[in-house]
User: Fold this.
Amino acid sequence: MLKKSFPSFLVSCFLLSTTFVWGTDFHGVCVGISEYPPPNQLPDDCVWDAEDMEDKLIDYQGWSDSKIKLITDGDAEEWYIKDRIQAMPRSAGHTDLFFFSGHGSASGLVTVDEKYISPSELQSTFGSSYNQYCCFLDACESGVFPDYMTKGVISSACKADEYAYCGGPDGHSIFTAYLCRGLKNNAADPDDFVSAEELHNYAAPRTTTYAQSEGYSMHPQLEDNYSGDLNLTAPLTITPFHRYVYQYAGTTTYTIENEGGLARDWSVNNNTSWVTISPDSGTLGGGQSQTLTVTYTQNYSSQQRTCIITLTYYVISSTVSLTQYEHTTTSGTLSHDETWRGNITLTGDVTVPSGITLTIVPGTEITFPSGKELYVYGTLLAEGTLSKRIVFNSQSQNSHIVRFNNSSSNGSRLNYCTLQYSNKGIYIDQSNPLIKNSEIRHCYYGIYNNQGRPLIDNNDISDCSYGIYNYNSQ
Assistant:
């Protein structure tokens, strides 16, 4: 059974008539039972054990209080404990913890309704394929669990034929007292983060020494079924994990959160020169958040680029990324200069406003569904090559493909382009584009010029009712 305290009472047989692994999320179930049915009551140590274990995980290891379930006394029935264990994620990337302080026997942990949770039942409750969890069991004969469980990191207060005792330091049971001390200020590994294995190895010899000083025999046991060390120190969180932005200069934000109870110093850096972050360091109180403003320059390259942002707390790091990629406006008005490439299908009319330049690279093919047009008030630079023409395909004989309006830049150029299958291949309204080395075919009007002064040179206009039609033009 577990723990009585006269002065360090035995946690003895129950009297029944019958390499670091980083979790992205941390969940726990902490159980403490003192008020068993008479005559098996235990001192208040057991409930305090569970409460302080929860507190130390929150305050010193950064766990969220909303992700730890505390179960004490009358609530600690067998079905409910198992239900809360099964409510944890129990999946890769998540670290789960189960703590128990109460009666134990060779048959397993004793719940308040005088039932047992055996080693095989505990393992099956976590799931036969799940392995990223740890159990700290402060109960008599709890060594039976590391003897028989083949998953997770299993730590017991004593051997399978030993008792565990209350009346330890800090008002705790002996084993739990040193578990809590190991979590506080990372005492189990002051130069690094705390793992489940390190926490056991910190508490075990101290438990044995203290028990011996009281005339007891306690030898905590560990069965480490996990490959590597199972980390218990939660990093600060930074969200979102990945942002995508257009190639234009701008700003976006990320959020750092401290789900733990104590303040933490933090800093951020990135691996590029085109991103700046403000603020880049600070102290974040327990339960607080910090918004980071990320400023990025324009990407003039044709290739997307990615910045890795690293958040560091103590020796723990979390990374997120920012990817900047080319934007293609397929409907509406361009807000920045754009470069189009590849195969593009418009979904609505596209307008290039005054002061904005649309560049189309050689080999690009643009499809204009029925009624969709390209309106140019700024600058259009569509310059292909002899071997890589830029192709404008209209799907309607009732619309125009490209319309240069009267405020269009005189620097607009169509060179080595093919425009086909529309009412007007090129509509010029009081503007002066260069149209050179291009093919215009299968249109009613190849080029329709309304009071413009375009430079038209060396073009092939075929299968059009009117090749070049001048309206009110010289």
